[in-house]
Amino acid sequence: MVKICCIGAGYVGGPTMAVIALKCPFIEVTVVDISVSRINAWNSEQLPIYEPGLEDVVKQCRGKNLFFSCDVEKHVGEADIVFVSVNTPTKTQGLGAGKAADLTYWESAARMIADVSKSDKIVVEKSTVPVKTAEAIEKILTHNSEGINFQILSNPEFLAEGTAIQDLLTPDRVLIGGRETPEGIKAIEKLKNVYANWVPVESILCTNLWSAELSKLAANAFLAQRISSVNAISALCEATGADISEVSHSVGMDSRIGPKFLNASVGFGGSCFQKDILNLVYICECNGLPEVANYWKHVIRINDYQKSRFVNRVVSSMFNTISGKKIAILGFAFKKDTGDTRETPAIDVCKGLLGEKAKLSIYDPQVSADHIERDLSIEKFDWDHPAHLQPMSPTAIKQVSVEWDVYEATKDAHGVCILTEWDEFKKLDFQRIYDDMQKPSFVFDGRNIVDVVQLRRIGFIVYSVGKPLDPWLKDLPAFA
Ligand code: NAD
Ligand code: UDX
Question: From the alpha carbon of 161, which atom of ligand 1 is closest?
Answer without folding.
Answer: 40
